[in-house]
Design a protein that fits this description.
Two copies of one chain form a homodimer. By secondary structure, chain A is an alpha/beta fold. In chain A, 40% of the residues lie in helices and 18% in strands. In chain A, helix 12 links the parallel strand 10 and strand 11. Chain A starts with 6 loop residues before the first helix and ends with a helix.
Chain lengths: 725, 725
């Protein structure tokens, strides 16, 4: 998982709100009577037909949550570090596949040979005039009594995947969070980064962009560290949830998506491939040597960096030394040799075939590979998935079969650039594009407290409804909806424009309605050795009720999408979202030679289409007992296909300018921060360029991008209304 | 319509085989008893359910053909020249729309504002040392008693649409058919074309490519003429079917598709547009002044061209002077001023809504606009469409309603680059791509004798079956199938890779199974003033039974596609086609560093998918009386969607290299001849380049293109088999 934009600092502000310790098998206390009555009522007319209503199984599903099951799976999955491409991760795949097979869900492994990156040699030393050299150990220390101390040796040495191999000795420059604006500040203040080693702290933008920005500023190498202000404002693990002084955030720096040797296509057997050298010379690779270091090592370097004092918001927390910009006198000697090698990864795919509509898919996905133990990232999600599967198996024993096919996916090599999910989506592109109703992603199920959701907007209402039926795991008298409403200061529902997790290929490459959710927003031991079962048990989710809550809403949304005759999609939220985006653009281009009228026209068409569909649905629903689609399933199929394919119509076959893999013109990553979830990314990029260059041609590009989004919105309106011109 | 590759010469060989004159309302003599018995039998079990079987209506449809109706419509449509963008063509649209509305088929006009091209000023004169100058009249003469003499003045002056405006005085060079190899021959024999006027004859490649090849060879202008050897080997119109001495082939020279101001998107109201200047500077525009001239004028020029004698196969027919290469001493003074202007075009769209599956479309299309009267091109097709509609209306009165929606389309501005159909497809892209079963094109319904079909291969078997049920219009004891089998010397069924008619956007841009058919293969008065009702009545189809035959097979195929529960698609023909193509590639790359193994693997997968589907269908069809899909229409829908979407999977979103509008990787135009219908066009282009340059990189490009087609074939195999990896 890649955390949300700026969440490391946010994580500090939202320290886990821990419930008091309690026995793990805490009985669920959230069974409001009205819901049960509603269930019985909803089931009644269906009972006449000897088949329970979908809502019956939904309530049954909610009642079956088991924190023990979730905890047991998490413990089993995290006994050892299990990095993508390792034997340990293959063993974890077997665990997942066995668990799913044991419910007699047909389950298979899909292997791909892909380019992964491991460290072969690393060293970092610090020197400065008049001082002894320091050679950093680059090791994360275990603590006395750590039950995972022995297997910790199996963890990959701290590194940044796909960093260039090389050796650099040069003065250090401090670059704050390594954003474009941080390097611009250095340039404006006469700090020359060329040929230097840039020291930047994790947390505001994707680490791959930090290294890329350093490279673009001319740095010869980059060192990234976890600043205590962001990651350790309180007691460190194992005494508290925060990052220990030697903790290091390991991670990926490739800014592309999927296997680097197969850009745009699947890594199938015998397929076309770039050579490793070609793949490594891509502009999506960092291109310079880079290493991540601990807070302690970062601070040691900063203490020897002189020059002008850095601005206030570049400084550290209490007790930190004064941060200065450099360059020097600290000199860093960094050596990194990477081992970029083809390795086999394995997705686990498990299919619960639909009874009435087997050729329509509701896909649930989570990844399995982890930088270390992965108790939070990603196996809290894997545990939730397996707990959810356990409940579906119970449902099946009670006679349930989904109307549509439910597919449970456990991806591999997400950490290396969403590789497992991307290759699978590319391999099955035509099938998935014409048959997938929705993709529901959970990466880290539990990182702390609070409920956070991102989704394509037609799912907003469904999420709200479902969250009202699930218990708040931290407060037995409340619903998850209450927790959600209390968790978000700015916007309630995030969007899926960023490259944060495995939804990327589904949304951005082929236009599938998708969501991503988690309990908790950020956590300090992210991608470090300390992301283990003990951390989860002590700080993340002692009762494992948060895991259950995620499994509950995940499964409930899946059941509603798989079982309801008419898909519970609401496109009026989408229309509002498109309109808000247009208003934002309007503010940004005020006074410039750009007309938004095509965009306004297309949104108007889209809104009319939404109204038309709602009217049709209302007319049909007047036959409550025996709606027309029961007599003619093709009628429902028509409406459902319109609902399903509308999202697809937001994709344009040529894709974003200069980033052709990204086909979705409404949601896609911003050019300078892969975590950024911009609406209308093509327009955003063009406006940024036009504001910088202010040429007539650059404003024409803005207009062109506005026309492009208008065209896909018009296509979507036609699909939703079901009309031809 | 653009004729088939090399058909002008072929036309000479296949002079219309005229049946003896006979009264127009010749009773159909082809009602073999077995067919009627089969009809009754097939209808029987359905009658128990009080609904006749589809085959009942199919036989009824065949029995309703009316040559009088076809003739009356053709006469009405061709009373005046009706070029795209003119008032006369708008009047023709009203005729078509009224005819369709009169059957109470909901009918609408879809207007687009597009860039058309008209001549504003033209002059051409010939001079040579020691002779008086000749100024050509550039007029096609009418004949004594021509009933259309008066309205002939309304015809557009002879010109080549989108030719560049300009004035050129230069020596003439003779360039045979203006192919790449013809200009290569001139270069090899020391004939410098630079700055000269290239004189080339029509007939072997698309005229737009002739002008482009001349430009690429350095010519300052081009003059295209109709050589008597190809167009007038016998008695000229009105005494015979051949081109009169002053007849001129008018036509388009734009090599793109659709409105030149909206490449890649629809010309909707308020849409983004290139300026006229931008559009005219596209590489798809001829870029030099050019004019078409008559055979008489062409010969006059050739008589004054000296230099080396041209090779034998560059010479004219009996009585022609000796053709020499030039340059000079003939000097041509050519002035052309074009009026490129935005004009309104109108498609007519008529919808017969399906009863069971209204959201699945079977689309029939023909264009309406003509360079002059258009009796052959295209209104023989329009007359057939209206005659067919008349029969469907009779069926409707007898209780028929199609299972799927039938859409009758009458396109505008086809002659200017398939504009009307292309804009409509672009505008409705997302809808059409997910809902269209097939597109059935007829441009010229009747040009002479013989039956010629092009199709995507899954329609091959259906076409054969249907043709056996339709009477040979020239022989009452035979079927159309017999005529077809006797008509084709080389291959039986053409393919749709070329840019010949309105199927282009359907097949090549969005991957819809399509066909195109005609009775007759080429005709001499093509695109001249003499393509009028008199020509058709005297030579093309005196009895109008050929029109009826085209309407019969067109409608029968449409009825089978619209009414049968399982789509009558056969993909084993497609597999064989893919395999033949692979064998051809194999021969061309023998000994080169190229592996076909990915292609062989993908074709193997495709063949397995075909077998799997056939097996499934066979298993289902054991319940003949009450097949499973009658109980569950979604089962049939699943199979039909797989059959329908398989063709779509042959498209790749990025399209052909450097020609991104062309998304279909199996069928697309060859780079140097827009008429060419290559299989695997991307591979073909790459091989041509590699054979020319023979660099390692160029052979890698061939390998890349082989991988690309392998990938789409693998996608298609997954779609057809309905499986996910």
């Amino acid at each position: 998982m890649r955390p949300r934009d700026g969440d490391s600092a946010a994580a500090a502000a939202r320290a886990p709100l821990l419930p008091p310790p309690a026995p793990r098998r805490a009985a669920a206390r959230f069974h409001p009577l009205p819901l049960l009555i509603a269930a019985a009522f909803a089931a009644s007319y269906r009972l006449l037909l000897f088949a329970p209503a979908p809502s019956y199984y939904q309530y049954l599903f909610l009642s079956l949550g088991s924190n023990d099951t979730a905890a047991a799976h998490l413990r089993a999955l995290t006994v050892r570090p299990h990095l993508a491409g390792t034997e340990a991760n293959a063993a974890a795949a077997v665990h997942v596949a066995s668990a799913l097979s044991s419910h007699s869900f047909p389950t298979r492994l899909t292997p791909y040979s892909v380019l992964l990156s491991y460290p072969a040699r690393r060293s970092l030393s610090l020197s400065a005039p008049g001082r002894d050299d320091t050679t950093f150990a680059l090791t994360q220390e275990t603590y006395p009594g750590d039950p995972y101390a022995a297997v910790s040796a199996e963890a990959v040495p701290t590194f940044l995947a796909y960093a260039a191999s090389g050796s650099v000795t040069a003065e250090a420059v401090y670059a704050n969070y390594g954003r474009v604006e941080d390097f611009a500040y250095l340039a404006a203040h006469g700090v020359n980064v060329t040929g230097k080693v840039a020291l930047a702290r994790f947390g505001k933008v994707y680490r791959g962009d930090i290294v890329k920005n350093a490279r673009d500023a001319g740095a010869a190498a980059a060192v990234l560290y976890t600043d205590a202000k962001d990651y350790a404002p309180g007691k460190a693990f194992p005494d508290g949830p925060w990052m220990p002084p030697t903790g290091v955030q390991v991670g990926n720096t490739f800014t592309g998506v999927g296997d680097p040797t197969t850009p745009m296509w699947a890594s199938s057997e015998g397929c076309e491939r770039l050579s490793v050298a070609e793949a490594m010379s891509s502009d999506d690779m960092p291109g310079i040597p880079a290493l991540p270091v601990s807070g302690r090592d970062g601070e040691a370097i900063l203490q020897l960096i002189g020059g002008d004092v850095a601005p206030e918001d570049w400084q550290g927390g209490d007790g930190a030394p004064t941060y200065r910009l450099g360059p020097g006198p600290a000199v860093l000697n960094l050596t990194y040799t990477g081992n970029e090698t083809m390795a086999t990864i394995q997705n686990v795919i498990s299919v619960i075939e639909g009874k009435e509509e087997p050729e329509r898919y509701v896909i649930l996905g989570n990844h399995r590979d982890a930088w270390t133990f992965g108790a939070v990232d990603p196996n809290s999600g894997t545990a939730a998935l397996l707990e959810l599967a356990q409940r579906l198996s119970e449902l099946q024993k009670k006679g349930w079969r989904p109307r549509r096919t439910i597919i449970l996916c456990n991806w591999d090599a997400e950490e290396y650039g969403l590789i497992g999910s991307t290759e699978w989506v590319e391999e099955n592109r035509a099938m998935l594009a014409s048959k997938t109703v929705a993709y529901l992603n959970v990466d880290c199920a539990v990182t702390g407290s609070g409920f956070y959701v991102s989704a394509t907007p037609q799912l907003d209402e469904l999420l709200k409804e479902a969250s009202k039926q699930v218990q708040n795991p931290d407060n037995g008298t409340q619903s998850l909806y209450d927790l959600w409403m209390a968790s978000n200061s700015s916007r309630l529902i995030g969007r899926l424009g960023g490259g944060g997790s495995d939804y990327s290929a589904f949304v951005q490459h082929i236009g599938i309605p998708s969501l991503d959710m988690t309990i908790g927003s950020g956590y300090a031991v992210y991608h470090s050795l300390y992301d283990d079962f003990i951390w989860m048990e002590k700080f993340g989710d002692p009762l494992f009720q948060r895991h259950v809550a995620v499994a509950s809403i995940w499964g409930l949304v899946a059941l509603r999408l798989s079982d309801e005759e008419i898909l519970p999609f609401n496109y009026s939220c989408y229309a509002a979202e498109l309109e808000n985006g247009a208003m934002e653009i309007n503010e940004r281009v005020l006074g410039m030679p750009v007309s938004l009228s095509p965009l306004h026209t297309s949104i108007k068409e889209f809104k009319s289409a939404v109204l038309k569909l709602e009217f049709e649905l209302k007319a049909l629903q007047t036959w409550k007992i025996w709606p027309p689609w029961r007599k003619n399933p093709l009628k429902a199929r028509d409406i459902n296909d319109r609902l399903m394919m509308t999202e697809r119509a937001f994709t344009e076959r040529e894709g974003l300018s200069e980033r052709p893999w990204y086909k979705h013109l409404i949601y896609g990553p911003s050019l300078h921060n892969d975590y950024g979830a911009e609406l209308y990314p093509g327009v955003d990029d063009a406006i940024q360029t036009a504001k910088r260059t202010n040429t007539s041609k650059s404003w024409q590009s803005v207009q062109h991008e506005i026309h492009r989004i208008s065209r896909v919105i018009t296509q979507a309106a036609l699909v939703l209304s079901g009309g031809l011109t």
